[in-house]
Specification:
Number of helices: 3
Largest sheet: 3 strands, antiparallel
Number of strands: 6
Strand order of the largest sheet: 1-2-3
């Protein structure tokens, strides 16, 4: 679930906006809600730009995320390597990425391999994950759970 709003532009060609997005971290199994991400200048103009009654102005800012511990950083690196292995093994079979059930919005979220890798690289860099929009109509049969991917690799290694 994503909400965006903006009150003013900046000189870098971007329209700053507050976006709330669900970010799944496989190594913890938790979903984080992230905010204050500038979105791409290709996005349509914010309908609330310059509006003193912008609904987002009533939202409180989220607390910054604490830095990753050395153990968490290593687990994210391992998961990033796994995403590459999953992609090499499963994409030729028509699997485009992973899905998970978001506890915050009670909906399934679909992540392509590139999005998963970008999220993990941003996490390792201490940055908020890039905001992404899911495809309008993802094909649920083209996405599998993280644990399925792990099991698939284990089965391939056992052969």
């Amino acid at each position: 679930m994503t909400y965006n709003s903006s009150a003013q532009g900046d000189s870098g060609g971007h329209r700053p906006g507050v976006r709330f997005a669900c970010l799944w971290l496989p190594f913890t199994g938790h979903t984080l809600r992230v905010a204050c991400v500038n979105f791409d200048s290709m996005m349509p103009p914010d309908p609330f730009a310059g509006d003193p009654n912008d609904p987002a102005s009533f939202l409180e800012a989220d607390e910054p995320l604490p830095p990753l511990s050395d153990e968490e950083r290593e687990r994210v690196r391992e998961d990033l390597e796994l995403v590459g292995e999953f992609r090499r093994a499963l994409e030729p079979r028509g699997v485009l990425g992973v899905f998970f059930m978001c506890e915050d919005c009670d909906e399934q979220h679909y992540y392509d391999w590139d999005i998963m890798a970008a999220n993990m690289r941003a996490t390792l860099a201490g940055e908020l994950s890039p905001v992404h929009e899911p495809s309008a109509r993802p094909d649920p049969s083209a996405y599998v759970p993280w644990d399925y991917c792990l099991g698939f690799l284990d089965g391939m290694e056992a052969r």
